[in-house]
Structures are given as C-alpha cells and as structure tokens.
Amino acid sequence: MMALRAGPRALEGHVDTPLGLICGAGTVPFAVATAVQRRGRPVVLFPLRGWADAAAVSAYPHHWIALGQFGRFCRLARAERCRDLVLVGGLVRPSLTQLRLDWGTLRQMPLVIRSFRGGDDHLLSGIGRMFEGAGFRMVAAHEVAPEITAPLGALGRFSPDRAAEDDIAQGFALLAATSAFDIGQAAVVSSRRVLAIEAAEGTDAMLDRVAAMRETGRIRLPASAGVLVKAPKRRQDRRFDLPSIGPDTATRVAKAGLAGIAVIAGATIVAEPQRLIEAADRTGLFVVGCPDTEAQG
Amino acid sequence: MMALRAGPRALEGHVDTPLGLICGAGTVPFAVATAVQRRGRPVVLFPLRGWADAAAVSAYPHHWIALGQFGRFCRLARAERCRDLVLVGGLVRPSLTQLRLDWGTLRQMPLVIRSFRGGDDHLLSGIGRMFEGAGFRMVAAHEVAPEITAPLGALGRFSPDRAAEDDIAQGFALLAATSAFDIGQAAVVSSRRVLAIEAAEGTDAMLDRVAAMRETGRIRLPASAGVLVKAPKRRQDRRFDLPSIGPDTATRVAKAGLAGIAVIAGATIVAEPQRLIEAADRTGLFVVGCPDTEAQG
To answer: What angle (nearest 5°) sits at the alpha carbon of residue A157, between those of residues A155 and A160?
Structure first.
C-alpha cells in the first residue's frame, strides 16, 4: 500500500519543487521550514486552522487549511507545484464530527474512518495514504532537514551518570515493549522505577504530573533524580510522527526535578536547539542522544 | 528465598491463631478483617500510622505501628500469637528518610535498601521476605477471604458490548506487556486506543486525568465509551499487592465518561461490593470479572 521510503538520494529529483509543510501546533514546523529554506529549497506552509501558530506562520509563504479540507489542500498544493509533503507539529486527535469535511475528503471516508480506530500512528499513516493516493510523496522532516534531529552524545555541558544510564536503559526497554500498542513515546524512570508513562495526555502533561507527585509527596526522590526518555515507536513510519523536544521540555523536566533527558539520536526532532541547550545547562540537566538500536529501512 | 505459597489447605493448620493484618490506606483492610471474622477467625490489626483510617480501625483489636518499626511490630505480633500475616491497603511509597527506623529494622537495612530500588512489587516482596525471615507466614488477602475478590462475569445489571470487549482484550494485552516493568496495574482503552496507563500516580489520578482530557477536548469520544482495565502484574507474588476496586472507582469511571470496568476474577479485591454495584447500576456502567489467563501456582 505504502510507497517505499525515499532515501536522501531519491529526494534529489524533487528539490527544485517547493516543499509543502502541513503544520500542526508548536515550534517544530518553523524549525523544519527554516532549515529547508537554508538548504536553498523553497517551502509552502499549509497551517492547520486551530493548531498552527498564526504569528509564526506569517513569516513564510502559506495557505491556511482546516482539518478535513483534503480537496482544498490538493488544489492549493498543486497550484504551488508542491510534490513532496511533510506532516509536522502537534495535533490533538479530532473528533469526526469536529472535522470540516469537503468533497475531496468525503470520497476518502472509508479510509478516514478506518484511520480513526486504533492509535495515533494508525491515524497518521492512514492520512499519509490519502495524500499518496492523490499523487503526493510523503517525506520525513528529518530527511529534508537532518540537522533538526538530535546528534549522538551529550547536547550540552552535562552527561548522565551511572544511575541515570540504568534508568535510560530501563526506559527505552519499556517504550520498546509498549510501542506495539501504538501509544505515547515517553516515560519517566528513576532508580529503575517507572514513575509515569505517556499515553493520550502528551509529554508535557506527563512531566507536570511527575512534578505534582513530587510536590504532594506521592513520590519521594532525591534532588535531580530520574530521566525523561523519548523514543519513536518501533516499526512506526517515521515520516509521520517523530518525537520532539525543545526548550519547554527542558524547563518542565527541571521543574519535575529530574536529572535529564534521553532521546534516540537521528530520530528525535530538536526544536530550537540553542535555547534547549541553554535551558539544560542553566538548570544542570543532561540531554543525550542515544544510539538507535532499531534497524532502519 | 521465598517460601512456597501456601494453598488453602496449608492454611488450615493455623486458623486457630489470630490473623495479623498490617493495614495501609483505604477500606479494603476492613473488608478483609470483617470477612475473616465472619469465617470465625480472630483478627488483630496493625494499622500504619499516617495511612490507616483511625475511625475504622477502632472497631477491631489493634496496635498502631509506624512504618519501619519492624522490631516493635514483631514483639506485638508475637504477644498476640499471630503467625499468619496479611499486608493490605494502599501505601504511598515512603522515602527512606521518612521511615522511623528502629533497631529491628536497622538490622535488616541491606535488604530494605535493595527493596527500595526498582518497582513497587520489588519493594513489597522485599518487605515480605523480612517478615518471613522473622518467622511469620505471609498469606494473601484473597486466600483468607476469597469472597472479597471479583467473581467471573458481570457484577451488576450491565455487560460489555462487542466494542467494549475489544477494548478489554487490548487493555489486558497491554498490561501483560508492561507488567515485566513492575508498574501500575491499570489502563484506559477506547476504540482500541490506549488513552492512559497507570504508573506511580495510581488508578484514581489516572481516571481523573481521562476525565480532564475529555473536558478540555484533548480526547474526544462518544458518551460512555472506553473501559478501565485492572490486572495483577504477571509473575507477581499475589500475597502482597492485588489490585482492588470499590464504589469510588465506579464513581470516577462514570465521571471519566467510560462504559465500564474489567478486572481479573479471583485476583482483584472488591471493596464494598454492594455499594460498588449500586453505583455502577445507577450510572449505567458494567463491571465484569474476566478469566485469569495466567497460570496460577
């Protein structure tokens, strides 16, 4: 069903056409757009009404779309000569009735409804199939702008100690076990104890929960103990939903009293790396990119 | 290290001695105590200061103890001729510095410290070994009072429909995958999507989170969709930490807009079953005991 993933070499054929970015919430879409522009390729943003940040959008060529306006999107993207598309940014799962459906979407309804059963990954790859069926090519944000992903090793001044390394290993093992269930991509582990696992609430809410549990005394840990681990789901199509971290993640991790953040190098988007590193260095957190043990296609 | 689990037959030898109940928070300790008394066996409660409900405790023979007063506990329990012990009720994980340690506990410190690394199950079985080392026998609440566990099938008027049965299967499969990590015993699943997984926050907080995500629109579900699943961890020593549900669980599940509750029959304690069933029937929830697929020793 799904086209084979395009490697960097295959992408060369289309770099003269503008890259279309369908943008959800957060700062990651703009980090990707700027990185692509710096590489000399034009971009056209398709910000999703209600999710994308209007002030940031205005700095780029763009056309607002509403979720579900597949027909309108296809017309606009073709007029802009976009062939390659990236889906990027946060998107709270909508209800079917909340979608503004146009005829282009209605023709695809059976596929949309199938996508709405099951987890997020299922939803996103279903949507990806819709775009590919209309002749577009879905590419991953980290394929068009590899510099936006976490490098291997420590990003700032601090590195994990032995206890943190134990927690990181435990956390990645847990995420590997849960990824078959198409759920969140993050957990918090301290002294090998799993304190929180992310599902529909998102990473920010999970970190706030850890901070609250510490405040109320539900969990009692030494200062600066515990690690936030984030990883892409195994076997997930990484074009659609790579995990991301940014300065706000570091602030929340510090507020939760944790020692640091561990992500998978090359498979995690780092939004605003300079501000993230500053926030981590200031609060004494480590941020580390770990080797990707999953074989990649 | 651990003595073999005593089956119901083996328990017969000690039914003339009072059963010692070390009581944490909640109503489950009193449900167990009353069920054991009804069977004609005397009980002595050892309520934990700061956790057990003082008003409820006063209805039974009891001696207050502080967490960590292992020496004091041993003296009192021997004076009361208790040989069999049940650990029951909620216990927020304490910090080591919060424990009031006496000499009996200090002698066991290496064991205590080992217990504090790793998950809850690890902690509880470490504590269990301390009691067994002092000559007591740890028994499960559901061995001395099997009538306090969930029966097979629907507990009230309502039963799960086909969609709910799918969610129940998905939820139990998820809990089986995570139980190797010694974490929570509950999750919420709707339309096969995992909305929340419990770790250190507890079932109540997880249900409140689902209610809040619905309120803010982070998740959008039809009315009465989704299931709370609870299961004991696999390979866990069930003497120490069976999952439990009660009337308050039903109230929270209703508030989260879910369709019902699924537990493992015979391996889940039901506190105040009459009030639970009333609450479920009143709010249209199903509460169902499912077959235990894990081979039991």
So the answer is: 75
Cβ of B78 under 8 Å from any chain A Cβ? no
Beta strands at A43-47 and A19-23: parallel, antiparallel or unpaired: parallel
**How far away is chain A from the Cα of B248, in angstroms, using its nearest Cα?**
19
Q: Do residue B197 and residue A193 have CB atoms under 8 angstroms apart?
A: no
Alpha carbon distance A180, A235 (integer Å) = 8
Q: What is the dihedral of CA B231, A175, B207, A252, to 10 degrees?
A: 150
What is the per-residue DSSP string for B2-53? PPPPPPHHHHGGGTTSPEEEEE-BSSHHHHHHHHHHHTT--EEEEEBTTTS-
Q: Which two tokens stand for residue B288?
A: 């169902």
**If DSSP codes are grouped into helix, strand and coil, which group holds residue A117?**
coil
Cα-Cα-Cα-Cα torsion A195, A199, A205, A209, nearest 10 degrees, comes to: -30
Are residues B201 and A196, on separate chains, in Cβ contact within 8 Å? Answer: yes
Question: What is the C-alpha separation between B152 and B291, in angstroms, rounded?
Answer: 7
With a threshold of 0.95, tell me whether the complex ipTM lies above it.
no
> DSSP string spanning A230-280?
E-PPTT--TTT---EE-HHHHHHHHHTT--EEEEETTSSEESSHHHHHHHH
Q: Is A209 an interface residue toward B (CB < 8 Å)?
A: yes
Query: Does the distance separating the beta carbons of A178 and B174 come in below 8 Å?
Result: yes
Q: Contact A199/A183 with Cβ under 8 angstroms?
A: yes
User: A154 at the B interface (CB within 8 A)?
Assistant: no
- For residue A62, pLDDT over 90 is answered with yes
Specify the pTM.
0.74
Burial of residue A162 (CB within 10 Å: 0-12, 13-18, 19+) is exposed
Nearest to A177 among B180, B182, B217 (CB): B180
Distances (CA, A) of A16 to A37, A69, A141, B150: 12, 26, 17, 65
Could you read off the pLDDT of A234-274 as tens digits, one per residue?
665 565 667 889 999 999 999 999 999 999 998 888 888 89
In which residue ranges of chain B is pLDDT below 70?
Answer: 1-15, 90-126, 184, 234-241, 294-297
